[in-house]
User: Fold this.
Amino acid sequence: MILPIVAYGNAVLRKRGQNVDKDYPKLQEFIDNMFETMYNASGVGLAAPQVNQSIRVFIVDARGFVDDEDEDEEGLKDFVQVFINPEIIEEDGEEWDFNEGCLSIPDVREDVSRKERVRIKFYDRDFKEHEEVYTGLKARVVQHEYDHIEGKLFTDYLTPFRKRILKGKLANISKGKISVGYRMKFVK
Assistant:
């Protein structure tokens, strides 16, 4: 089932998600619905708060970054993962800018500076524990989605000047004055 994606301005996007256990009601169905929702919106990641659930779950399918399998230097075509109760242990390396967007903030893309490497502990959809190190675009996607379960958005990293420039556009998104090709839930 395709779920509506919560738009910028909704309070759930600013809450820190709660941990879940393997007995969380309909968790596997919820994860499947998250993937269907993300694919329908042409995303590469989606966090539970973006579909109005304040829990510590996010998914990633970075194949959307790969145009040609011959150009998959970072191994993105195989980067499909469910992250349950993740905890970033460390972020390090040089900071680098990349133009980010977000399904909850459609038609807004901005350069965001993030560390090039992340170490994260998490459970997969079968509640098997993992500790992984990701670099480059993998690290960036993980950091972006992790921010969602911490109640942060990529716009939080922008300078006050950039935020002022985007103020009107963000207000219009929160009011539903935007047209997108996927279901959204706007602030009432």
Observations:
- Residues 144 and 177 are 25 Å apart (CA to CA).
- The beta strands are 5-6, 45-47, 57-61, 80-102, 105-123, 129-135, 184-185.
